[in-house]
Amino acid sequence: MSTHTPSGAEIAPDLDLLSSACDLQWTRRVISMADPAGTVASGERMASEHSYSITLSNNRTEKAAIDYVMAQDPHLWAPTPSSRRLILDGLGLPQTFSRAFDLVRVREPFDTDSGLSAEEIDSITLVELKTTKKYLPELPKGFFFGATENEFDLARELGDSYQFCFVCLHPESMGYRLVTLAELEPLIRTKRTQYQINL
Predict the structure, then answer these.
(1) Fewer CB within 10 Å, N side or C side of the chain?
(2) Can you give the pLDDT of all 199 residues of the chain as single tens digits?
(3) How many whole angstroms separate alpha carbon 7 and alpha carbon 26?
(4) CA 68 to CA 13: how far, in whole Å?
């Protein structure tokens, strides 16, 4: 288990994102197609826009967390979609795990343009980020987060080669902590199942 809490650290992440207007227009089109007569209540439309705003905020928070931990640890690397495929192939794992990790931790910094060798893939650690802006002086104590069954399955499959990285972006308790599943399980106070359903 490892903890990193820099003194006086500040983050200045590059938060360039896709145009929010474009995505919001797409949301409205979905509503329009589902309700061609235009009878959707204004409250439902506002709820949809509010949901979009939350998603955008979460994306910005995650981007800030990735920028922050990578600035603190040169051994962390953000894989591209094609790199994810190669890593999973190299580890003999199905592509269904491609979204079950955010970063890769390597033993030694490497040239990201040339990619990882087969030997390096065998020694990497996959890292899944969980981020909060809540004040947590005893990180990760008090952390509330969501996790998929895929993430837990991959953690069980890889053991110590898979870590959850709990990142706190609150200015008074900024830091991060890496834990394996074996280290995480004794820390869990409550856990419940939530279903995400598409109709």
Answers:
(1) C
(2) 666 655 443 333 333 333 333 333 333 333 333 443 444 444 444 444 444 444 546 668 889 999 999 999 999 999 999 989 999 999 999 999 999 999 999 887 766 655 677 778 888 999 999 999 999 999 999 999 999 999 999 999 999 999 999 999 999 999 999 999 999 999 999 988 888 888 9
(3) 43
(4) 7
How many Cα atoms sit within 13 Å of 170 on the Cβ side?
14
Record the tokens describing residue 150, joined without a space: 């895929």
The Cα–Cα gap between 118 and 8 comes to: 39
Residue 36 CB-density burial (10 A; 0-12 exposed, 13-18 middle, 19+ buried): exposed
- Is residue 151 within 8 A of residue 191, CB to CB? The reply is no
pTM score, two decimals? 0.69
